[in-house]
Amino acid sequence: MAFRTFAVAASSALALMAGSAWAKDGVTIGLQLEPPHLDPTSAAAQAIDSVVYSNIFEGLTRFMGDGSVVPGLAESWEISGDGTVYTFKLREGVRFHDGSTMDAEDVKFSLDRARGEDSTNAQKALFEGITAVNAVDPQTVQITLDAPNGSLLFNLAWGDAVIVAPESIDGIKTDPVGTGAYTFQEWVQGDRITLARNPEYWGDQPALASATFKFISDPTAAFAAMMAEDIDAFDNFPAPENLPQFEADPRFQVLVGSTEGETILSTNNKQPPFDDVRVRQALAHAIDRQSIIDGAMFGYGTPIGTHFAPHNPAYRDLTGHSAHDPDKARALLAEAGFADGFETTLHLPPPSYARRGGEIVAAQLATVGIKAEIINVEWAQWLESVFRGKSFGLTIISHTEPMDIGIYARPEYYFQYDSKQFQELMAKLNATTDPEARTAILQEAQEKISADYVNGYLFQLAKLGVAKAGLQGLWENAPTAAIDLSALSWAE
């Protein structure tokens, strides 16, 4: 692991002056979750991308704060007439943080690694249509597809598709080496990660010389740290009940936007009794979404009835399919053979929406006879037991990946939904480039998973940010899990 240590000896007055100057040249950002490691290409944890996306690692394309996809390490591209060959022209003069040149061979290595048989990439399905990646010359990469894919440029902007170097891959989880505007400096486990400005960055130099991500899991501690100005910003503030105090305080700004986070009561579709659609439908009718939003999120959040963001133009409001109706839930359970209810587990990871929301959901389920044993788990435990191990009945989680309805076409995905009809819809979507036709397919896909009651669809997670008044450039919305440090600066 790379370290840089600074020793300072000064009087208290000089220390205060230095601290004030440092605050204008750096930033400390609070995060509720600590990443399990720092390789975005081998884990599903949102906290990884929050630290490394565009800061340390970059892809051929990238997301901007408004959700648009723009050139990244590829400055331009051409698409063949039949839509199956993409030729990317790479930027000149790009170097990894260790000084080595980033070229077409690195792109080939990265994409072949992501789609390989032994790949541990959490979003391996993004690369399934790729049949070959060829380095035409050092600055040119050609990607060949088995069929046209109108989502390819979007897929390549995900954190799971960033470009890495083969020579640094062994240490990527604890000492990440990328091409971004910031270099990794230090990770003090359980406390913080520190990044420093990359003086050799190929693009514009960011305004801030350093950034520290401070891990504060407890909402009360997050509020105290922010009020004491020990941190400069909390990108996803975990205590929405405190936002009015920040709004009334001129020292701070509050940023309320939307995320790609579909917050769901995720259901193990292969575990009895959830393999019965009537039971899953009963779950959906037992839930009172607005009570969860009000009780856990203090009113912040938009009810959803399917796995799709309401701010997307293709969104269909399907909340009526699963309106709160406890009597209907009880009747469905009786029809399925569970007139006396049943017992299950409810795994809750650390975020406030899960822990607070889980208590409310468990109480709502109990009113129809479903006794959900709450099991609070840390993030690493959730990834191991729920996401990878599929050892759960129910869990609450917010899926923050951008427009990720395609996960329902993966029978091996942790909630284990297996629908040939849905899989065919996604194959059709990938082969379609016409915007109107794609919208129609996406709406049909939303209706399918809503009608199958795959999961309990709760709400779209709001992005609740708090920052010092002078900090500029924070994303109001979150089209992907990222804290783009290159956009930040302090007002004069």
Q: Can you put this structure into words, describing what you see?
A:
The protein is α+β, with helices and mostly antiparallel strands and 492 residues long. It folds into three domains: 152 residues, D-Maltodextrin-Binding Protein, domain 2, CATH 3.40.190.10; 104 residues, Dipeptide-binding Protein, domain 1, CATH 3.90.76; 204 residues, Roll (Dipeptide-binding Protein, domain 3). The chain contains 13 helices and 19 strands. Strands 1, 8, 9, 10, 11, 12, 13, 14, 15, 16 and 17 form an eleven-stranded mixed beta sheet that branches. The longest helix is centred in the last third of the chain and has 17 residues. It starts with 11 loop residues before the first helix and ends with a strand.
Q: What's the main sheet like?
A: 11 strands, mixed
| Shape-level CATH architecture of the largest domain | Roll
Tally of individual helices:
13
Shape: globular
Span between termini: 35 Å
Give average pLDDT, whole number. Answer: 92
Oligomer: single chain
The radius of gyration computed from the alpha-carbon positions, rounded to a whole number of angstroms, is 23 Å
At the fold tier of CATH, the topology name of the largest domain is: Dipeptide-binding Protein, domain 3
How many strands appear in the DSSP assignment?
19
Q: What would CATH call the class of the largest domain?
A: Alpha Beta
How many domains make up the 3D coordinates?
A: 3
Low-confidence stretches: 1-23
